[in-house]
Amino acid sequence: MLAVVLVSACTQPTSPIIASNGLKITNFAVEPSEIYSGSTVRLTLDVENEGGTIVKNISSIVKLDGASLNLFDTTGFYWYNPTESYTKFFDKDLRPSNPLTNTPADSKTLSWVLIAPNVSYGQTRTYVFTSQIYYDYETTGSGTMWVYSSKEADAIRATGGSLNKANFTSAKSPVSVDMRVSPADPVVLFGNENKFSIFMEISNNGDGAILEPGAISYTGNLSDLQFKPEKINKVDISFDSPGLTISDCKGIQELQLNKKTTLICNILINNPPTSSASYSFQYSVKFIYLIAKSLTAKVSGV
Question: Which residue from 34, 146, 270, 282 has the highest number of Cβ atoms inside 10 Å of its Cβ?
Fold first, then answer.
């Protein structure tokens, strides 16, 4: 995982956790393998969308970093190339695979052409480059829950019937969402009751870091990629829930670093059923995801 230093006895059905990397750096390499002072090299970065959400070109960016990288310094002390850029765009939306149409995931190759710094004759120096990818992403899902009046639930059980239980789904994403009904599934209302809760468990199961939506801007300027420490590990949650009023787990929520975070969603049934009813909702967990990969390049003096 990318490190950013600022930094009831009854079993209930839950949503299946389908973890994935979202965007994945499948290759980051330098050519040629033997590099000499002042020679020209190419850094190549291969990226693929292994998640379940489209990565849009307008909300994603790639940055090349290195302690000895200064594109506009031609003195020979740094890796340079005044015609290159520290940041690059994919120049297209990257779509995930579609099993229904047998369409593979979109991928993209980016490259930087650089001129190696000068190294004294007979010596070899090792340099480290890091590619960083920032992109807007979201985990989407849905849920259907059953609610019974106590009278209806007793009547069904008395005849040997069973009560329908909740079903939750979640799309592939590096940030996984798992849900379960509380205190029991299905929901049985007594008297004038009209409330219940859902536990929403969120985990960073990918190999990157989470930033609050809007923490950076995708302009291409390096200064716009600087983010405040308080923007780390925050997501923005929203619901579309006809017939239900969901509170206490919406909007900007802070997650625990490297731990599963459990949010309690309190749910008000706007018009409680007199017998039984099912209620469905859709949710979205939005965030910026930051992944990185490094490589080393050795330069020999000639």
Answer: 146
User: In whole angstroms, what is the distance from residue 6 CA to residue 188 CA?
Assistant: 46
For residues 92 and 192, membership in a common domain is answered with no
Place of tokens 């989407």: 140
**How far apart are alpha carbons 7 and 54 in whole angstroms?**
27
How many domains does the structure of the chain reveal? 2
pLDDT digits (tens, 9 = 90+) for 100-133: 899 999 999 999 999 999 999 999 999 999 999 9
Q: What would the pLDDT profile of 45-96 be if each residue is shown by its tens digit?
A: 999 999 989 999 999 999 999 999 999 999 999 999 999 999 999 999 999 9
Nearest to 19 by CA among 61, 59, 50: 50
Residues 91, 213, single domain; the answer is no
DSSP secondary structure string, 89-144? --SS-BPPPBTTTTBPPPEEEEEEEEEPPP--TT-EEEEEEEEEEEEEEEEEEEEE
